Every structure is written in structure tokens, then in C-alpha cells.
Amino acid sequence: MRVWYKNFDWFLVLSWMALVGIGLVAIYSTTHGPKQEFLLESVRRNFDRQAIWMLIAMAGSGMVLLLPVRFFQNMAYPIYVLCLILLVVALAIGREINGARSWIHIGGFGLQVSEIAKVGTVLAVAQLLSSRRAQQNTVRYASLAVLIILVPAVLIVLQHDTGTALVFFALIPIMLFWSGFPFSTIALMISPAIAGYMALIYYPVAIVFSVAFAIGLYAYSRERYVGIAAFLFTIGTVAITRFALPAVFNSYQLARILSFTNPEAEEYRYTTGFHLVQSKAAIGSGGLTGKGFMLGTQTQGDYIPEQSTDFVFSVIGEEWGFIGGAIVLLLFAFLLVRLVYVGVQMKHPFGVMTAAGAAGILLVHLFVNVGMAMAILPVIGIPLPFLSYGGSALLANTLMLAIVINLYMRRDDFSIYGY
Amino acid sequence: MFDYRIRRQAFIGIIVLIVGVLIMRLAWLQLIEWQAFSGESRSNSLRENRVLPARGVIYDRNGLLLVDNQPTYTVTLTPRYFRRERIPLLAGLLGVSDSLVTAKLREAQQWNSFRPSPSFNDITLDVISRIEENRYLLPGVDYQISQRRRYLTGISAGHALGYVREITRDELNRLRSEGYRPGDLIGKAGLERTYERELRGQFGSEFKLVNKLGREFKPFRETREDVDPVSGYDLHLTLDNRIQALAESLFVNKRGAAIAIDPKSGGIIAMVSQPDVDPRIFSRTVSQKEWVRVTTADGDPLFNRATQSGNPPGSTWKPFMALMGLQTGVITPETVYYCRGRYTLGSHAFRDFGEIAHGPITVERAIQESCNSFFFNLMMQLNLDQFDEYAHDFGFGETMQMDIGEQERGLIPDSAYYDRTYPRGWTAGFTINLGIGQGDMLVTPMQLARYVAAVANEGTLYTPHLVESIRHPETGEELPVKFPPPTTIPIDKKNFKTVKNGMRRVMEHGSGRWAQIPGIPSGGKTGTAQAPGGQKDHSLFILFAPFDDPQIAIAVLVNNGGFGATQAAPIASLMAEKYLTGDIGPVGKWRIKQLMTLQSEKLESTQEED
Fold first, then answer.
1. Structural domain boundaries of chain B?
2. In Å, how far is A242's CA from the nearest CA of chain B?
3. B373/A391 Cα distance (integer angstroms)
4. Is the CB of B8 less than 8 angstroms away from the CB of A322?
5. Which is higher by pLDDT, B280 or A145?
6. A93 in contact with B at a CB cutoff of 8 Å?
């Protein structure tokens, strides 16, 4: 029996600490900088609250680390069901914050159930897919996995929290990818997203992409129907994006979606493009070294809405410059790669899937959030993991990380219950 | 079990790709497009504010502080950030009507939507702190500390000091390049206007960071870019607060003007024009209603009677006539004229006052008795060109290069004037009245005072002025005070002596004897000028004292005050007594009592003279 900390992954813990620390510094700047005199007392306490949530998350992680591997495998479904119940409860009696009815208040603390549900869903999908025997019906399992993900996603859509639901949808190809689905199928699943994005920006590129994608996929799979499907998927998305969007959405929703392509335009500048103009100005004006801690004029002038939550990256970009922003991105890259690496080393599908699910969720959050802050994606309100102000997200993400660390630490135990 | 390694590589590839895209985007924004976004964030958050310099203060001739500044709060509106639904709240806090706030908001919008416009002046600290408490609810509302004029002595001197008032739109269009902004105060009359540039100083600027709601939260670059304002220069006047105060008090219920000049320099010791507008009212916000009330009051208080009202000089003109007669050789001090109480020209008789016949009379006695016939006769022996020449030598019929901008030239008629006015021809009968200061001529009290000063100092014509020196309060640097140099009147001193003797006799035995300065010999002359419209005559008096070494020369006009001796003379005498002795004796006190009972005849209509 080896000493427990031999297997304890310090890399993950250290990068977690670095990211949470940077997040607290950024939140401190937004609550205790020169702008604080204009803040409501309740907003001014955001820093303290985030620090308390960090302590709660650490305590929770400590408890998670004490649990055996078997617990997570056995409890995956019950936890998932509990999450679904909580989602329904939130939908029924929850409090609405920022238009989303996804909060349950226990004592003084509000819990955003949709954040917790991510962990439960990842565990449930991991449990489902890892129990599959190699010979068993792939399609049945895949459908079940998609169902497991879609149920909470739909509940969250009903809560009007489309951004969080989007993360669940993105989880589908990621989990299937790690459960051994063919590359071509995964590529087919994500290709509409890429084609749609391109169509929003410049549709000829999207058409070129769909042709190239179809030919490439045919060349890879050597199956004609895959190539045709690839073309139909992508060109269909392009067509929908070009022609159906104006029919489906009203002009305001459409402006919200389209404004990111040119937020500075006169018609968006003070309306739907305002966040993006200000966020870009904040990050861009940071330059190489930034304006300095608590010296960001955009941050302290309160020009960027939601700057301690969804737009926390703009605070870092403005006050710490390219150096600060790049460090955050590289820390994330390191954390994600390490998660994948750790997961693969566990050799048990449950461990691999859990780690991959965690990495996938964090990656989607990172890409959507930072991409939004830098205006390469539309404004989709999801937080930057570990950095954004928000206790539930910090707790959920930290617990998810703790679970992976725990599984990795006790990876030898898998053999007893596994194959 | 399939091989995880290839999945791992692929997934790590996707992670690297995504993070790589994000870092490239970050580099694009922060390293390549940095300057553009810096500009964007600056235009967002950087605001340049002007810092008003302290306006120069004003001292009297004895170093007494007359005017300085006092801080006041001005509430500003920044329309871009202001929320219209908060108009009632702001109006309630300020205690004004909603419509006024709406109007001010519109005014501010016309100037600049993104900058704070000074909208409500003279707000008390109490109101400011209540606005401060509600600042969450009032984005776009802020306040500035500015200054207003404070008048420290009891004098008004409204026409000398002038006043400052909010800049008008026209002035703003003209002066914007000099740094003026809406809501600024600017000198509108008198010294405040003439010396606006010197008094104002130089605007400074400070750079502030503003937040989304338009509130300043922090200096930019620790104030390193700020430019300090430079205070204005102080004015040191020749005005004597004591004499000014006395003269103003003597003008109660009277319309008119009084000017006292130092005959040795031209420095104005006192300058009164009544009715006037107390400049104090302009240091507050003046509502349109109040402005109209003040400016259209009976007697036109904005009209400077000292420099703008032209009246015939009446008998105060006689010393001038005598000087001209003596200098041209038409008469000598010994020339005797026989007065019959009337002067007949053709079929028309020009009368003496009360048709009193003075009998044989010399020039000195003619001045003493104010004998009209003597001067009719004299005028008949002179021609109009000579009259014009000497009148202009004394500065009549011309504006002065002095520090009060509000002036009228008056009227000294020449033949061209008569040709123009009387196209059917004119004769000596038209000009003979000029000999006794009546007829087609107008002089201002200021011109009259300057003339008395030149008589007193025997031939040196100074430019009257109020400012002795312009000095910077911090550096002590002095700016040159520019006036035309004194000119010498081409009249011999001995002729001045003769005329001055005549004027002394006026004070000792003539119409001025009731206005003698106790214990101080002086020279003077009463005058009564016909007022148009059948109103009571204007009362005029000129005086210099002491006789041997004149230190003060005075001209007083009391509109519709009757004979010169009754109202104008005691005012001049009291001013001189106060100036020369520093006090008023018992006789003077009795005179003051008498004066208080006298007044200008009430105006029948608002249109008064000329």
C-alpha cells in the first residue's frame, strides 16, 4: 500500500489554487477599487462571499477526497436523480435571478442548481457508458447517454438559463467521443456548430467549409453516406442560419446573436453590442502589461456589465494586460491537459469518462466565456470556471476536480470492482 | 477496450487549438490593436474639466478690499447619463419646478450631451448634501464649486465696478476659443467688463476618470497631466470708499450723477450714478423676472448717468466761456460790460435770470453773479469754430480712452451740425445760447468733472480713470495701466487764475455761498439746465478745492433737481469736505439733513431726458 499523497495530483491542485487566486484578485478589484463608493453594500461584499465559498468548496473537496471510488460509481445515478429533483424544485419554487429561475435558497446562501447538475450528469453518463460491454449495442447506449444529458438540459432551458443548457448540449459529443464513438460520428455532431458559426460571420466560408468537410469525411470513412450526411448537415445549418434565423427570432434576439460580429456598429453600440464594445475596449486597452491592479479605467468606471461574473476576464485583461490574460489561458490549458492525462492514466472507463467530462465542461466554459469577452462569440452568459464570482459554480467545479483527483489517487481500487 | 491514447492526443489537440485561438485573439486585441482600444477606453472614461481661476479682487485707493470672491455650489447636468424619469426627484431636491429642470436639461443638451453643464447656480451646501445622498438615483447629476462676487463694503458703485453675470449665448460663440463655457461668469459692465481679461486669469484643467454614470471617481495619472489655473490680477482703484459711500447716501431719492476727480492725476475718487443696480444682485442667480424688474425700473438703473447722460451744462459752462474770451483776447480781466438784465439780438431778447440788471460788470464778477448778458455778448464776439476748438481742447464732444466703456460723446455743435439740423438756415440767434451752456449742446457729468479738474490744475487735461494699478496677488507683477497721456490746454495760466478767482467769488459771495466748505476756500459754479418736457430743471454744480492747491474736482448732476445751488452744490461740498478733512462738520451734518428732504421730481413717464 503506497502512501496516499504519492498519488495525489499536486499539479491539478496548484493550478486550481492559481486560478481561484487570480479570480479573487480580479473580484477584489471590482469590489474594493476606486469604484467601490458607487457600489451597493451588498455588491461590495462579493469578494468576502467568494472567499467564503472558496472555503466551503475546499471543505467539500476534503470530504470528497475521503470517499472511496465505489461510492461515486454506486451513487452516480442517485446523485443524478437528486439533481433532477432539485432542478424541478428550483423551477417550481426557486427564485429568479437575472431572468433565470435556477436558484434554491438554503439559509443565507443561494444555490444555483444547474451548476451542481453538471457534476451529477457527468457522473451518471460516465457510469452508464463505463458499464457498457464492448459487444453491446452502441446505438442504444448512445441514445441513453444523450437522454441522460438532455433531461437536465431541457429543465435548465425551461429555467431560461440557455447558456448553461448549451454546456450540456456540448457535453454530448464530448462524452460520446470518450466512450469510443467513431471520429466521423463525433465530427458530424459538431460540424453544424462550426458551419453555423462561419455562416454568421461570412457565409461563403461556411459553404467552402461544408464542401471540404464532406469530402474530408468521405475520404476518412470511405463511406458515401457519411460524406453526403456531412454535406447535408453543414449546408443545412448554413441555410438555416442564413434564411431561417430572421423568421424564428424577433429582431431584438437576432441583434443579440449578430451583434458580436460587429459590436461597434452604430445600431449595436449602445444596445446589444454594449457589453462587447466595452469588454473589447477594456481588454484591448490593457496592452502588454495592463493598467495595473485597481487602475483599470473600464473596470473602475463600471463600463462593463457583469464584470465580476461573466466578464471577469475583461478585468484581468485590462488590469494585468496580455501577460495576465495569457497566464490565465495557459493555466487553463495546463489544467485541462493535465485532467485528460490523469483521466487516461486511470485505465478504467468510469475514471476516464469523469475526468474527460470535467475537462469538457471546463473547456466549453473557457471557450464560450473568454470568446465572448473578446467578442469572437455572441454574448452567452456562462461564467469563467474558478475565476468568476459565483459560489455554486465555484463549488461545483471544485468538487468535480476533487472527484477526479480522488479517483486518480485511488485508481488502483478500480481493479477490485472493475474488470 | 479501445486505445485511449489516440483520443487523448485528439482531445489535447482540441484543447491546444482552442486555447491557441483565444491567445491569438488576446494578442490581436492587446498587442496589435492596443492603441485603437486605448483611445476607445479613454474617450469613455477620461474627462477634462476646467478649473476656474480665482477672479482678481478690487481694492479702493486706501487699500480697502471692496470686492472679493466667495465659494458657491453649482449643480451640473450631463444629459447623456441623466434619466428623465428623475426630473421630479431632482426638482424636489432643488426646490424648483419640473419645467425648469426640463428646460435646463434641454439647454445642456444643446451644449454637449456628454459633458456636465452648469445648470443650477448658487445652491446651498444643505441641498448639495441631499443630492449627494441620492446620487445612486441621480446619474448625470453632479456639482462644482465655483465662485461668486462678494461685496464687502456698503457701497454699490454699480456703474463703476460693473457686475459679472452668466455668459450669454452670443458672447459664448465669440469667446469659446478663449476657454469660456456655458455657465461661466463674465464681466458685463464697468470695470468688470473693461478688465475682464486681467481679472479672469487663466483657466486651468484637470483630468478625471468618470464611470459609466458620468461620475468622476479618480484623478487621471495622479493629476500629473493637470494644469493649474492662474489667478487673475487685482485692481487697485483710485476710488475712495468713504467718499463713494457718502455720495451714494446723499443721492437718496434723487436721480443723477456725481464724479470726483483728483486734479493732479485724473484718478476718479468717487463715481455715482443713481439710480443704479446693486451688483450684489448679480452675484446670485438672477431670474429672468428679476432681471426685467431691475433693468426696467423707473429711471433706467442700467443707464450710467455719469458717462452716458448728456445734458446742457447750463451756467457751469461760464468759466469755460470766460477762459475762451480771455485767451482769444476778446476780453481782458478788466473789460467792463454793462448788464441791463437782457441781451437784445434783433427783435429777440435773451434774458438774465429774473431779468436782474447787474450793471457794469467784469468777467470775474460775471462768473460770480452768473450774468447771462455778459456771456451772450461774449458769445456774439466769438465764432463757432473757436468755440468748437476750445471745447474739444477740454475733451467735450469726445469719448475718453478711460476704463468705463459705457460712454456717450455728448454734443458740441459745429457749423456742419447746424447746417444739417436747420436746413432752412440758421443765425447767431441759434448759437448765442451756447454762451450760457444752453441750446444745442450736451455734456456728460464725466466730461464736466474732467473740465473742472483741468481748470483747477490750470491747463492739464488728464484722462479720468478708476484703476491705479493692476497687480498680481501672488507674484506681485504689475501690468501697465494704459491711458492717453495728459494734454496741455492752450490757455495761459493767468487766464485760469482770473477764472478761478471768479469761481472763488461764486463760493464766497455768489450762488455757491450756501455750499462753502467750512474753513476751506474753494472755487465752484452752479448750473441749471433746462429739462425737456416741462419737467423741473436739472441741478448742476462744479467744484474744486482747496483753492490754492486743488486736490479734488467735482461735478454733480441732480436730474430734475431744480437750481444748481439747492441740491447739487451741497452734495459736492460735502464730498469735498469729507475727502479733505476726513469728516463732516456740524454745518455739513445740517446740510445732509436738508438734502435728505430733497429729491428729484418724480418722473411722469419712464422716458425722461433727451
1. 75-110
2. 25
3. 110
4. no
5. A145
6. no
What does the pLDDT read at residue A3? Answer: 60
Please provide residue B575's backbone torsions phi and psi, each rounded to the nearest 5 degrees. -60, -45
For residue B411, the cross-strand partners are B442
Of the CA atoms within 13 Å of residue B530, those in its CB half-sphere come to 12
Whether B606 has a pLDDT exceeding 50, the answer reads no
**Which is nearest to A400 in space by CA: A121, A144, A177?**
A121
Q: Quick check: helix, strand or coil at residue A383?
A: coil
pLDDT band at A419 (very low <50, low <70, confident <90, very high): very low
- In chain B, which residues have their Cβ closer than 8 Å to the Cβ of A177? 7, 10-11
Question: What domain range includes position A344?
Answer: 4-113+265-417
* Residue B287 DSSP one-character state: P
DSSP bridge partners of B186: B165
Per residue in B524-552, is it b (16+ CB within 10 Å) or e — as a string?
A: bbbbbbebeeebbbbbbbbbbbbbeebeb
ipTM score of complex: 0.95
A340–B contact, CB cutoff 8 A: yes
Say how many CA atoms lie within 13 Å of B501 toward its Cβ. Answer: 12
Check whether the bond before B275 is cis (ω within 30° of 0). Answer: yes
Looking at chain B, which residue has its C-alpha nearest residue A367?
Answer: B18
Q: How far apart are CA B258 and CA B552, in angstroms?
A: 13
Q: Residue A56 phi/psi, 5° resolution? A: -60, -45
Decide if B571 contacts B556 (C-beta within 8 A). Answer: yes
Q: Give a yes or no: residue A228 inside a domain.
A: no
Under DSSP, is residue B316 helix (H, G, I), strand (E, B) or coil?
helix
pLDDT over 70 at B603, yes or no: no
pTM passes above 0.90: no
Q: B500: left (phi > 0), else alpha (psi -120 to 50), else beta?
A: alpha
Q: What is the DSSP letter of B344?
A: E
CA atoms within 13 A on the CB side of B526: 31
Q: Which residues 166-225 in chain A show a CB within 8 A of chain B?
A: 177-178, 180, 183
Does residue B334 register a pLDDT over 70?
yes
> CA A382 to CA A399: how far, in whole Å?
18
Tell me chain A's radius of gyration from C-alpha atoms.
22
A107 touches A383 (CB < 8 A): no
Which residue among B1, B8, B36 sits closest to A340, beta carbon to beta carbon? B8
- The number of domains in chain A is 1
